[in-house]
Amino acid sequence: MIDIGSNSVRIVVYEGPARAPAVIFNEKVAAGLGRGLAIDGRIAPEDAERGLVALRRYALLAEHMDVQDVQCVATAAVRDAVNGPEFIKAAAEAGLAIRLLSGEEEAEAAGYGVLAAIPDAHGIAVDLGGGSLELAEVSDGRVGRRASFPLGVLRLPALRKDGDQAFERAIRKMLRAASWPDGLTGQPLYLVGGSWRALSRLDLELTRDPLAVLDQHNLPRSALRRLIRASKRLSFEELRAIPGMASNRAAALPDAAALLAALVNILDVPEMTVSSSGLREGLLYQALDAETRAQDPLIVAAEFEGRRLARFAPHGRAIAEWIAPLFADEAPADSRVRLAASLLSDVAWSANPDFRAERGTEIGLHGNWRSIDIPGRILLARALYAGFGGADAEFPAMGTLVSPERLARARQWGLAIRLAQRLTGGVEAPLKASGVALIDGKLKLCLNAGWHHLAGESVERRLRVLAQALDAKPELVLL
After folding, report:
1. pLDDT of 255 over the 80 cut
2. pLDDT (tens digit, 9 = 90+) per residue, 417-476?
3. Strand bridging mode 189-192 / 271-274
């Protein structure tokens, strides 16, 4: 996917399952195609040439990467520029057929990008680019009303010159002209785009969040006050020094914060959630059939990763079913994370034995997962840490992000998975000839006739550890 935006020109190459594609190459050039629009309505020659140089490189790379489906889309800058058609013609000479998205198509794709990663999203997707701002209503797995406004970050300085009150009035007038926010007040926002992510990076820096993950980072309405203050107080150099903060994003932070504050006031927004999935992912999602869309992106991604890294034929679902009797009372949301942990139960075997638990933690916390919130990532990491033999006292502190009770349950998942992997040696067949159950305060491991030799010191040791975690007594039953 080649995305020609107003701020940057980017290529993203995906592989893996259609419902949860993994990024294997991602590069952008800050061409700034939209910079000249506010001056004379044209893409400046030097910006156009910079963008075309990037496109020629991307076309050549895609060819030699053997990319099967090269999609190239352009948004506000090319759409609005007087010389946009000339730019498209020049790009065609590099072998790229550009699809020029309308404002409504751009908003719709952003909305479906949010739904691709957060299927139960209910609110308004807000995609801030360099040349435009898109709003899309998302609910029940569908995109409803949508609109596009000339409020990209490259246009905001001119709109803010008369002060923030006049700025908010101008935005309110634009939205009303498009029948927004009729009937859509009081709903959360889902923030899409690099400028919103930069604001979230600033928030993570200010709050010293113990898990600095942007995707699904939650911003309560009260966070806006500190973001606005910080964006005004901190120098460009201080903002640029924040890990992961690009120079062009740092420069635009005050304008992005002011726009978000105006939208929150106009739409009476209670909270905001960052979505790392946006236009590109939305376009891919729109192309899927209904059956593929209905798949759980977390489980699909975990299954793909588990299959890729497993020693033998992967059997994470069989492990999840094998340990399920021990956790019959848990909530469906936790069962889903437990299944993901089971699917990933063999991903760290190739690491140095002294660091397998840390590898599991890293995969759980920072894996490119979709449709999982911050507490879910922590539970996944806790289970994998225990599953790969991590010392309990050394699991990273996560403050108050997850309750001790849920962390203890995730540790139990990991210990149960660890027992299953030790019992079976990492293959599936022994699971079919054995079972575990909690009965009358006893943790029973049952082995069918012909499989008794699976028992051994290491298996009994892991059975004892799991029993202790479950406040039960271990018992080996030979049938």
Report:
1. yes
2. 999 999 999 899 999 999 999 999 999 999 999 999 999 899 999 999 999 999 999 999
3. parallel
Q: Which pair of tokens denotes residue 135?
A: 């709003």
Give the full edge-to-edge strand order of the sheet including 98-100. 22-29, 9-15, 2-4, 72-74, 98-100
| Per-residue DSSP letter, 326 | G
| 296/278 Cα distance (integer angstroms) | 18
**Fold annotation for 103-281:** Nucleotidyltransferase; domain 5 (3.30.420)
> Which tokens belong to 22?
């993994």
Alpha carbon 14 to its chain centroid, in Å, reads 15
- pLDDT tens, residue by residue, 291-334: 999 999 999 999 999 998 888 888 999 999 999 999 998 999 99
**Residue 58 region by backbone torsions, left for phi larger than 0, else alpha for psi between -120 and 50, else beta:** alpha
| Residue 146 DSSP one-character state | E
Residue 3 CB contacts under 8 Å (≥ 6 apart), including other chains? 9, 10, 11, 12, 73, 75, 279, 280
DSSP codes of every residue in 10-23: EEEEEES-TTSPEE
Q: Tens of pLDDT along 169-178?
A: 999 999 999 9
Identical fold, 103-281 and 297-478: no
Q: How far apart are CA 427 and CA 414, in angstroms?
A: 17
Burial of 214 (0-12, 13-18, 19+ CB in 10 A): middle
Classify each residue of 437-472 as buried b or exposed e, where b means 16 or more C-beta atoms within 10 Å of its C-beta: ebeeeebbbebeeebeebbeeebeebbeebbebbeb
Alpha-carbon distance values, 408 to 42, 200, 331, 413 (Å):
59, 30, 15, 9
The first and second tokens of residue 233, run together, are 């107080």
pLDDT at 465: 96
Q: Give the architecture (CATH level 2) of 297-478.
A: Orthogonal Bundle (1.10)
> Which amino acid is residue 47, in one-letter code?
D
Give me the residues paired with residue 10 across strands. Answer: 3, 28
Identity (one letter) of the amino acid at 99? R
Domain extent listing, the chain: 2-100, 103-281, 297-478
Q: What are phi and psi of 156, to 5 degrees?
A: -65, -40
Residues in the chain: 479
Hey, how many other C-beta atoms are within 10 angstroms of the C-beta on 220? Answer: 10
Question: In sequence order, what DSSP letters do the residues of 309-324 get, joined into one string?
Answer: H-SSS--HHHHHHHHG
* Listed residue (476, 431, 153, 164) closest to 318, CA to CA: 431
Q: What is the pLDDT of residue 399?
A: 66
What local confidence, expressed as pLDDT, does residue 254 receive? 92
- Find out if CATH 3.30.420.40 is the number for domain 2-100: yes
